[in-house]
Structure formats: structure tokens, C-alpha cells
Amino acid sequence: MVVIGDREYPVATGKNKKEAKEEAAKAAWDSIAQENQTSLPQTPQPQLPQPSLPPPPPPAFSSDEEIQPLDYISMLTKYTLKHNIMIDYKLEDESGPPHKKIFSYSCKIGDKIYGEGTGNDKKAAKQAAAKRAYEQLRSQETSRAGRHAAVASSANSLLSNSSGMSSWSSANGTDSASKNMNSDGSLASKMNDLKVGEDCSSSWATPKNAVMKTKRREITPKLAPSFLGQQVKEEKKENKYTKDERLIKDFEEIEPIGSGGFGNVFKAKQIIDKKNYAVKRVKCSDKVQREVQALAELEHENIIRYYTSWTGKDYLNFENSLSLSRPRPDLLCDCLFIQMEFCEKGTLYDWIDDRRGKENYQTESLIKFRQIVTGVEYIHSKGFIHRDLKPLNIFISSEDKIKIGDFGLVTSMTDDLRTTEKGTRSYMSPEQAGDKYGQEVDIFALGLILFEILWIFSTGTEKIKEWHKIRECVLPQEFSKNFPLEKHIIEQLLSKDVAKRPSASGVLELLELFAKKNPKNAHTR
After folding, report:
1. Among 51, 300, 326, 405, which one has the highest count of C-beta atoms within 10 angstroms of its own C-beta?
2. 436 is in an annotated binding site
3. Where is average pLDDT lowest: 230-234, 311-315, 322-326?
4. What's the pTM value of the predicted model, to 2 decimals?
């Protein structure tokens, strides 16, 4: 299909991609020629003059096999140059065997990190990180533009559709409507004070203003449906990020805050209680149903709180949601929406990044680690294994409290055989290469997290170079010198012999002993 601006032209098919594209171009050309009622030839020839329309952009949507990859790195570079802000790509992780490396890059624009992207080579990983950053920037700008357009449309409706207002303004010889507009496009206090069916006689009692009173009362019936009702309804219908009726009906200020192969996560304000929530949108499957079932059983101060879930038809990525000028039912799929607690302070990954190059954060690190272990202890007590503990899946609430989240890989201890290679490779325990393992895999991840928040690498590149040594429990000499007791705990958590790793409860006991031996850190208990 050819898409020019927001106009979609007829779908065409072919025996291969080139033939299908040529047929689609021919169909679009013929449509343009017919609409313009010109004598343009029906098939494009090399000698034909170009039409006066702008060149068509790449297809707005297509299958993974047909779409031409966009250079998101170049697009972001242009964006940052235009807005005079810095952009930086950091190599955060490098894992996998030599013949099948997996690289992970983060993209930082200004002072904000826009998640990570992965790929089989560094260039692909950078492109993936740039793509995520570009999508989030685009969605933020689209959201702002939509809100400004709604305000402008509402004001124009009042000014153009109300004959009473025009007559009232003319009678006074001034543009009173303009005077009643604030700088942000909203109506001033006098207009807001006007109620439907309200008798204005007390304010407009003199004969001189009698006509004005009548005219103002005439416009009130038009004000309610056009401004208070119809505009809100249409704004919801045109939501850029979702087509799900319940999400649009129950929430406002819907903004994407995360995306990946799993689906998307939105920040959304509930219309009734006015609170912000995180709403996760994923494709329906047995795996995501297990995630919901686990979340419904877990209720703890250090676990992301689950509220409700529902199913609906929607797109699975932002590109389709943003680019379609009209609904395409064939691109919709059965999705599961999970409403959860929203954590205002982001992730532990963000917390670590904010402290790169700084000193004296270790006491705060131990406080956070104890909360993480407390949450893991509760998960294990309910018979679950998280399997994907890492800083990106650990959140921080507005009260500075740790909240473990993302239970997409959670599994139950009642399952005899477990899937292999499930989790984030750089935080996976050695035994996860097989199908027989237990809750000890979460303990191994805790050991890596404890080291990472006590000894924050100055750069992501430094972490990549040293991380394989940390996984083998070869810790820097300076760390061992400055943190001897913590080193002792980490060595137990990273033990290759799973029998030597303590349980989550055992880790809490080690932290208790540590606090007793270090009175200055007693408040971390």
C-alpha cells in the first residue's frame, strides 16, 4: 500500500515485493490522476513530469518482511541538533557465546535515558535503542499537540458557531470574544461563569445591556453539546496510542512509557479517581495469563500492586497505532491489559545511572537492597520464581520504596520442568541453561544486583568489560578492601554450587549480622 501524508491508497499484490510495490505505486498514481481529472498517463513512465504532490513517505505500516528499515540514529541526530540537546549511546551489556553475541545499548537524550535496545551487533543494538527513544519522543510531541488542538477546537467552536456571541460582540463594537480568551487558549472567567439556562438578570439589569443579556442566553444551549460533550467524545475516538474501548473510556492522558518485544506500557490517569496507573498491553497468551494470576496472589509493600485486567482488540506496537488514518481490523489482535501501580521515581536502573561518578551512596544502596530481598522472600514464600530480577524490573515509588515488577517470566515451583534460557542473560544464573532449577536463580541475581548498587561503574562500557568477572565472583581488589563484609555476602549469593546459596530469608539474616557488626549502618536493618 502507498500512503501519502495521512491518505491511504488501494492495496496491491504481486508475486514478489518489487512487483507488489510497483502495482501499489500504479494504483496510487491512477487514483491521483483520476481525482485531479488530468491527462496523466495511467502507467508511470520514466519521462513523465513529477506530480505537484510531495514525494510519498515510506509505508506507514507493513509486515516485518516488507517494511524498509528506517535509520533512527540519523533521525534522532537531526532532532537533537534542531533542539540543541546532547545525545549519547552507551554500551550497557554484552553477552552470549562468541559466535552469537547479544549487545545492549542505551540512548540518553539530554538528562533522560530512554530505555535500552538489543541486537546481534553493535549497530543493530544502537538502532534499536534509537528507535525506542524516537518513538517515545514522537509520542510525547503527539500527545502535547493533541491537547493543544483540543483547546483550540473548543474555542473555535464557541466563536464560530454561536451567532449570539457574534451579535453581542458587534453590538459593543469590540471583539469581546478575543478579550475573554486567556493566553493558553482557554476561556476567561466571565465565560466560564456562564451556566446553561442561567438567568443573567442580576448581572445585566440595565436597559443599556438588555440586548446583551438576551444574546448571551441564546448561546447557552449550543455551549453544552459542542464544548462539553461532543469535543470530549471525539478526542477519545482519535486516541493515538490505543483502539481499546475500555482504556479510552476509563482513562485520560494516556502516554507510552515503555515498549519492547512483550508489548507496551502506558502511564494513564483514571478518569474517576484522578490517579496515575501503569497499564501494560500484551498479546493474549498462556504466559501472560500466568503473570496476571501471579500478580493477583501477591500483595506486599515491595511488590508492584495489581488492580485489574481485561481483554480487548488493539494494536501491539505504536507504529500501527500512530500511523493509521482509519482503523484496520486485520491488524488488530487479542490483547490483555493489566492495570498496575505506577512508580513515579522510575526504576533501579535509573537510580544507578543518576549516581554514576558520585560518592557516598552505599548506605542508601543497602537500604534498597534489603527491601529488594524482602520482596523476593515474599515471592518465594508464595511458591513462585521471578526469573528476571534486574535493575530495569525493580521500581521506586514516590515514597522511595522498592517495588519489584515485571512478572512476565514468573513460574511456579510446582512445575517439574522449566524452560531453559529464560531471563536476561547478563543476570541469569549458570543453571538456567538447563531445565531443572529452583528459587536459587533469583538469589544469584540478587548477588549481582548487590554488587552493582554498591560499586556503580562510571560508564556502561566499564561494566561491559568487567561484568563477566563479577559473574564469576572475581571482584575488584578495591571493592574487597572497602567492603569486606559485603564481599562475603556476595560470594555466597554467587556461588556456583546452588546448595551453598542462602535462601532469601538467609540473606536477610546475613544483613542483620552485618548491621550488628557495623553499628553505623544499623539503620539499614
Report:
1. 405
2. no
3. 230-234
4. 0.56
